[in-house]
């Protein structure tokens, strides 16, 4: 997800620069082309603004592991489903696209979780779910 967002931002910015140079060379400034260029530039800068601060953490694999008691809730809307990890000790939420295969989910069922994230806690990398009592490994991200 991180690299997709980074590449999408770079593509939009390069598209906007290419469109701007085309418009200046050909001296064609229509409202549609200017709007397309501005929209592309804004979307690209937004995507890069979100992803670039974490780039060094991702490239150097400088991650932070957040440990503690957690609950796992499943959000299913339409065809997609996501797992929301709520770490109770730090009161942080982490969202993963894949759903771990567990016996039960919800706020009433606690687990012990280890979630690997970037140092700034913006992008989730990996998770491990353990039984809260026996610390037996139940699930990991595939």
TrEMBL record:
Molecular function terms, GO-annotated: peptidase activity
Keywords on record: Hydrolase, Membrane, Protease, Transmembrane, Transmembrane helix
Keyword Transmembrane: yes
Domain of life of the source: Bacteria
Biological process, per Gene Ontology: proteolysis
Keyword Membrane attached: yes
Record field: transmembrane: 6-25, 37-60
Name of this chain's protein: Zn-dependent protease with chaperone function
Origin organism lineage: Bacteria, Bacillati, Bacillota, Bacilli, Bacillales
